[in-house]
Design a protein that fits this description.
The chain has 378 residues and is of the alpha/beta class. The chain contains 12 helices and 18 strands. Strands 1, 11, 12, 13, 14, 15, 16, 17 and 18 form a 9-stranded mixed beta sheet that branches.
Length: 378
């Protein structure tokens, strides 16, 4: 079977959403909601390709926003519940959020005290993000419970506080984790915050629940959520980002040139720093269709981006055949936490956005041009 992402209809570079795979992920989430009684909302920080929202909103209950602009996007394009959390809100942010949100979680007692009267007037449910001081994330950059974290209120800081007006607690310390990491986290939450849980109406367990990954124990997740909801008489909320778009489509790129310096280097029409920054930040090694680790296949290449940054290198891969200008390179699983981080650095061509529909037809959603680059700044 030929690779549909090599079709001449798909421009290069291009992020391509596979609609069938997205629906399969959403069906898993529907099962979790139906059997556990929990509510799942989409974390826009991980996936905000709003051209897919007509499909996503058939399954999920709304969105969670990390900023005023994300809240506006959720209200404009998703049209269901909007929840918000940010490390800090400016007054102008709060004005926008109160227009659109049904839940707002605060990162500190100070921020809650600053805005609580205003929020109460608008009849928006208020929550506090708490830090269970329990680590599960494998990458320090993505660990909200690391020592010294700026994210969330410690249990010790709640002692003696009158929490009248707070209806929920928000917990987020997972990153692409399994249900057993959640179980350990819940144990920490229930130990540290046991005295406050009975007075809450809801508990938001944040994101990082990679329930759509192959091998994830969905039954165990459902059992954890159901037990929590029934034991404390709480509305339980999950807000995954990666899980929604997990393995739903690639970034298609093209070889522009081959240069040699201590080996062959393929220059692509994309940039690691501009189009897949986790490659440099984590670091992270993308999977490439029909490629492998160096030395496994016959022809080795370092893959480099088309920017002036010396370190704009994706990594070293091996291929069955020699690469030449015009060949396509398909970077798998690029829908989550990739598109949302892109920039126009160096004016390198920004990847287009398209959808491979369930019918097999490719639909180009957006092509970027010079005017998009120009109006990014002024």
């Amino acid at each position: 079977m030929s690779n549909p992402y090599l079709s001449a209809q798909i421009p290069s570079p291009c992020y391509v959403m596979n609609e069938k795979k997205l629906r399969e992920n959403l069906e898993i989430m529907k099962r979790v909601q139906d059997e556990s009684g929990a509510k799942i909302i989409l974390a826009l920080k991980g996936f905000s390709m709003w051209s897919t929202f007509p499909l996503v909103r058939k399954y999920l209950q709304g969105c969670t926003a990390s900023s005023a602009w994300e809240a506006e996007l959720a209200a404009d394009e998703f049209g269901k519940e909007v929840h918000a959390y940010s490390p800090a809100y400016k007054p102008q942010d709060m004005d926008i959020l109160l227009e659109h949100c049904c839940h707002i979680s605060f990162n500190s007692i100070t921020q809650w005290h600053l805005y609580r009267d205003h929020v109460k007037q608008e009849k928006v449910s208020m929550g506090l993000r708490v830090n269970p001081e329990h680590q599960e994330a494998s990458t320090e950059l993505y660990d909200p419970s690391a020592p010294g974290s700026r994210l969330g209120v410690l249990a010790s800081q709640l002692e003696g506080e009158d929490l009248t007006g707070i209806e929920g607690l928000h917990v987020h310390n997972l990153c692409e984790c399994d249900s057993y990491a959640l179980e350990r986290t819940l144990k920490a939450v229930e130990t540290k915050f046991a005295k406050w849980l009975p007075q809450m109406k809801w508990l938001n367990l944040g994101g990082g629940h990679l329930m759509t990954r192959k091998g994830y124990d969905v039954d165990h997740l459902i059992a954890q959520l159901k037990r929590l909801r029934e034991q404390y008489d709480l509305e339980v909320i999950l807000e995954p980002g990666s899980a929604v778009a997990w393995q739903t489509g690639p970034l298609v790129a093209q070889v522009v040139d081959i240069v040699e310096n201590n080996g062959k280097i393929a220059i692509l029409d994309i940039s690691a720093t501009a189009h897949m920054p986790d490659v440099l930040e984590m670091p992270y090694r993308p999977t490439i269709t029909d490629a492998d680790l160096p030395g496994v296949k016959a022809h080795n290449y370092r893959l480099g981006g088309n920017s002036c940054l010396a370190g704009d290198v994706i990594g070293e891969y091996s291929f069955d055949k020699k690469l030449k200008p015009g060949d396509r390179v398909v970077f798998e699983d690029m829908m989550h936490y990739t598109m949302v981080k892109t920039t126009y650095f160096n004016g390198v061509e920004h990847p287009a956005i398209g959808i491979l529909e369930e019918s097999g037809i490719f639909r180009l959603v957006r092509k970027f041009n010079y005017h998009d680059f120009k109006h990014r700044l002024s």
